[in-house]
Design goal:
The chain has 11 helices and 17 strands. It has about 500 residues and is an alpha+beta fold. A 5-stranded antiparallel β-sheet has the order 2-1-9-8-7, with helices on both faces. A hairpin with a 3-residue loop joins strand 7 and strand 8. The chain starts with 6 loop residues before the first helix and ends in a 5-residue tail after the last helix.
Length: about 500
């Protein structure tokens, strides 16, 4: 059979017919108004290009492109370093990019093999003409399939069903969304639904959406699902239809090839206009790009331009390999560990995985740094934050060496407040214990003993030489006296 007429197809045809009839009616009755509106949108997009880009105001920072998005951000997903900023705290409608938060919470709290049922509310509280995949009340799919339905098909009813599965009701899930956003550091956001359908009180900002997306793209499974160009939904006992859904993200489905794409999500409503979140990874950087309030297809071309700007103008630099101001070098004795024969470690060290992201035109020595001792981790003493002209570029931690259990137990409890990278006078009231590197001490003792023995040998040689000279001189003097005595006897004639 070349074509299977399922309810999914029927649902799509009905939605398409309704949408087409509305468009035709609007075109016939308001063609002049529609043209004027399109012209206004194009004019607004052109005006957005003239809006200031805050990152361009940083001295000696690479000049970023002028794009037609009203607000946009390019952020490193792992460090939170902002490479490009254009009105990043402006409150905007996110449309379907909301679903990134929905899927993040579902992945954090759900089980991919669990079944997600579709209630009457989940299916019938979304508009007929909106994004959907034709699920009916009473059906169910696995959570993994549901995530594909949300991220590939952008299905609104599936987002509702996932919310009910996670929190028991859509209302409770929305509360969880706002709570999770606050935990991620979002301050410009308020969510009113699971899917991004328009609500005047449903908004976010480019910065907040980048924070949410950064956490989203740290999850390997979400990256896999969010980077899927086409997904096959197979018929099951609880969902009787077999169908495919295509991803409309052009950097994911191959319409606009781009190296290093990790995933992303599209969004659109009449009020939000085009919104887009994309993640790409190259040169040791995993960059998240968010553009809000765009016009098609500029959301894709602007995203490519921003990625090119980031990957071509910035570099990753490991902190521990370049920092010498806060490093405590191993002096041989100031070490800690549980191996008395030399496997000990320095007491403090900068964690080796941290890095800064800086323009190609500057060096590590150009950065400013501040140290903060208000850290809660047991083995971390302080955080070092780096900036360039007051713009954050990365951070690292001063780590306290941790010891493994051993048969010989020493007291190595060191209070974090007692350790500083600044030079201070020792406090005799402190009784903290550090390990001595016994191997190096023994080597030092052997060297000292060797030098001492050598000195004794040299001294013995010198003294023997002096005694030999004295004996030779004494013998010579005796010979001289004998010769004189013989000479005196020779004067007499016996």
């Amino acid at each position: 059979m070349l074509f299977s007429y399922t309810k999914k197809c029927r649902h799509t045809i009905i939605c398409t017919a309704l949408t087409f009839s509305v468009l035709i009616g609007g075109f016939l009755g308001n063609s002049i108004t529609a043209r004027a509106t399109l012209e206004e949108l194009e004019a607004a997009a052109d005006a957005h290009k003239l809006l200031p880009v805050q990152s361009n105001e940083i001295d000696n920072w690479p000049i970023g492109p002028a794009i037609s998005a009203e607000s946009a951000i390019l952020m490193d997903a792992d460090t939170g370093v902002i490479l490009y900023a254009k009105d990043i705290h402006k409150k905007s409608y996110p449309a379907s990019t909301t679903k990134l938060l929905t899927c993040l919470i579902a992945m954090e709290r759900g089980n991919l093999d669990d079944m997600v049922p579709f209630s009457h509310e989940a299916v019938f509280t979304v508009p007929v003409g909106g994004s959907n995949m034709g699920m009916d009340e009473g059906e169910s799919i696995t959570l993994e399939e549901a995530l594909y339905g949300i991220l590939v098909a952008s299905a609104n009813e599936v987002a509702n069903a996932v919310g009910e599965y996670v929190s028991g009701s859509i209302e409770d899930f929305i509360a969880d969304m706002n709570e999770r956003a606050a935990q991620l550091g979002c301050t410009d956001s308020h969510f009113m639904n699971t899917n991004g359908l328009h609500d005047d009180n449903h908004y976010t900002s480019a910065y907040d959406l980048a924070l949410i997306s950064s956490r989203f793209f740290q999850n390997e499974m979400l990256c896999k699902i969010g980077n899927t160009p086409r997904y096959h939904f197979e018929a099951t006992a609880t969902q009787p239809d077999d169908f495919y859904k295509n991803n409309k993200h052009r950097l994911i489905n191959g319409e606009i090839p781009y190296e290093g794409i990790v995933g992303g999500k599209t969004g659109y409503t009449d009020d939000a206009r085009q919104t887009l979140v994309t993640c790409a990874e190259r040169n040791g950087m995993k960059l998240v790009c968010v553009v809000l309030n765009e016009e098609k297809p500029r959301q894709f071309t602007d995203t490519v331009e921003l990625f090119d700007y980031g990957f071509n103008n910035f570099q990753v630099m490991n902190i521990s390999e370049n920092e010498d101001k806060y490093q405590i070098e191993s002096s041989g004795f100031l070490q800690t560990g549980n191996d008395i024969f030399g496997s000990s470690k320095p007491i403090l060290s900068i964690d080796s995985d941290s890095y800064v992201i800086i323009p190609n035109t500057i060096s590590f020595d150009d950065l400013d740094s501040v140290i903060d001792y208000n850290v809660s981790s047991e083995n971390r003493i302080a955080q070092i934050r780096y900036s360039y002209h007051d713009s954050y570029v990365g951070c690292a931690y001063l780590d306290l060496a941790s010891n493994n259990a051993s048969s010989y137990d020493f007291d190595t409890n060191i209070e974090t407040t007692d350790i500083s990278v600044e030079k201070t006078e020792p406090d005799p009231s402190k009784t903290n214990t550090i390990f001595v590197n016994v191997k190096k001490v023994l080597i030092g003792i052997l060297v000292f003993a060797g030098v001492t023995i050598l000195l004794f040998i040299l001294r013995a040689f010198i003294m023997n030489g002096q005694n030999a000279r004295r004996r030779r001189n004494k013998i010579k003097r005796k010979q001289i006296r004998r010769e004189r005595t013989r000479s005196n006897f020779d004067d007499f004639d016996f």
